[in-house]
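Standup notes
- DV: blocked on the single-chain target, sequence here:
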Amino acid sequence: MRILILEDEIPAKKKLVHYLNTFFRDEVILECTRTVKGGIELLEKYPDYALILADIKLLDGNSFEVFSKVETQAPIIFCTAYNEHLLEAFQTNGIAYILKPYREKELRSALSKFEKLFQPKMLEQDIFKQLQEVLNAKDENYKKRFAIKKRDGIKLLEICQISLIQANGDFCKIIDAEGRLHSISKSFGVLAEELNPKHFFKINRSQVVGIGHIEKIEQYSKNRLALGIKGVKKHVITSTSKTKEFRVWLES
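- DV (later): unblocked, structure below
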């Protein structure tokens, strides 16, 4: 199995090489580069990498430049000191995001996830097409749309249009991706149970966000994140108790 390492720091590269050889028992081919240019050249030469481990910052740019110029189907584990690129990482083939200084336990967890998701039998097929089909599959147990009462009648609001749901007593306020406000006569708890947890997450006691409309993620405090949501004017904040779970949800 061929693995590509994009890492500009030599000590970090040596650590990754050691951990990878230990985990895979030396049954891998490891190739490393410290630059964007080198990453592009290696991916063009070997388009069939099974896995990529990438730092964000490289000597001549950032690793996202590599993936924008050379198409790859390889899953990516990001190992970096920069947490502000979390959302951008998962808009590529990212399957894990590990912050430096990381420990062997954290990397082993990410590698175990790789093995679980990308079994050799599955790699023979178009794995990314399969995963997309699973994500897009209709789940009859969850709502597809809500009937919203308006002054001029009843309007249908598709679930995929929802950016944010806000508790409001016995009612809920819903903001869609266009910034339009809707009111629905359901309690927050009931409404949250009707949403597919693959696509919606309760970030605090009174707000649920839709993953498809998260545009930006920033550090708000040590244990809280500020989220920029499409159609929502102000940032929404994860609660301290939900932040860790939210990070895991982003990867799932």
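- Follow-up: The chain has nine helices and 17 strands.
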